[in-house]
Amino acid sequence: MRRLGTVQQKIPCVFLTEVKEEQSRKRDGQKFQVVATGSVNPAALEADVDRALATEKLDGTCCYVTVYKGQPYLWARLDRKPNKQAEKRFKKHQYSHRSFIWNVEEDFKMVPETWIAAHRVQHHDGHPVPDEHGHIPGWVPVEKDNKQYCWHCSVVDYEVGAALVLGPDADDEDLLEITAVPLADLMEQTLELIGTNINGNPYGLGSKKQPIHCLVSHGSVRIRDPPPVDFQQLCSWFQESPEGRVEGIVWHCSDGTLVKVHRHHLGVMWPEKETCFGDRSVVIRVDSAAEFYSSKDLFRSFSRLNGRRLSRLQDIQFDP
């Protein structure tokens, strides 16, 4: 089985889906939404989803660690998307169900020279092929002090090759811990960046005055006693179970297949006022004796809380 947490492509829903022409619950201004039917996706059945490992789908932005400039680097998700003219043609194609041929050189918006396509993106004549949504998933390296990716920058220190990672404690899975992890230990992993300025901050991390961001390795937050892959039972679990106060579930199947469901697929609102993840206890283990905190505010702030245990993740506060 592949290492858990390698999210390079859009993960399909565990159920077959359909598009409804109504206001999206997930994206403002989107006049349609993708909803789950009651039928389990055949791909999930073939991958034996009932025996898969269920993990929490976190609400953040996807990142990737791989080599850049000869060292491990954090990369931000940047999907290459069509320009307005090509997008109009593509939408007409979607409604007419006629064949559609992309001209990648002319139809797509420019991306930085450092952009790379995600793993398993198909290529034709040397060019990446768009997926069924008309996007080309990819990554760009998070350069030091890049203002566009300032929150990504805050969780890495390239001088010593470390990242601030939040995840379950090795000895107590109920307890979360924040540690400074060598980027070399995260090579070829994907992670979720969560925090104050990401997706409305559903987990209540930090504040405008003291923003807090962390990386969470995909597949690291397991769900105990997950509900069966059944439409009604999942709906009930999300709405009634204390453990169901999550954005969604990602199932990691034994053959490496990933499938997911999030609340919007089932017509259940998100975020909750109190999330399961934000309510978990956390311990800070960022060594104050380390050398790499002089230039990185977030690292330095966490090092001052080294050894501190808090009853809830959202209770983390730094001294003025």
UniProtKB/TrEMBL annotation:
EC number: 6.5.1.3
Pfam hit, one: RLIG1
MF annotations from Gene Ontology: ATP binding; RNA ligase (ATP) activity
Required cofactor names: Mn(2+); Mg(2+)
Coiled coil region boundaries: none
UniProt keywords, alphabetically: ATP-binding, Ligase, Nucleotide-binding, RNA repair
InterPro entries (UniProt xref): RLIG1 (IPR041211)
Reactions listed under catalytic activity: ATP + (ribonucleotide)n-3'-hydroxyl + 5'-phospho-(ribonucleotide)m = (ribonucleotide)n+m + AMP + diphosphate
GO biological process: response to reactive oxygen species; RNA repair
Nucleotidyltransferase among keywords: no
Task of the protein: Functions as an RNA ligase, in vitro. The ligation reaction entails three nucleotidyl transfer steps. In the first step, the RNA ligase reacts with ATP in the absence of nucleic acid to form a covalent ligase-AMP intermediate and release pyrophosphate. In step 2, the ligase-AMP binds to the nucleic acid and transfers the adenylate to the 5'-PO4 terminus to form an adenylylated intermediate. In step 3, the RNA ligase directs the attack of the 3'-OH on the 5'-phosphoanhydride linkage, resulting in a repaired 3'-5' phosphodiester and release of AMP.
Protein name as annotated: RNA ligase 1
Organism expressing this protein natively: Monopterus albus
Organismal lineage: Eukaryota, Metazoa, Chordata, Craniata, Vertebrata
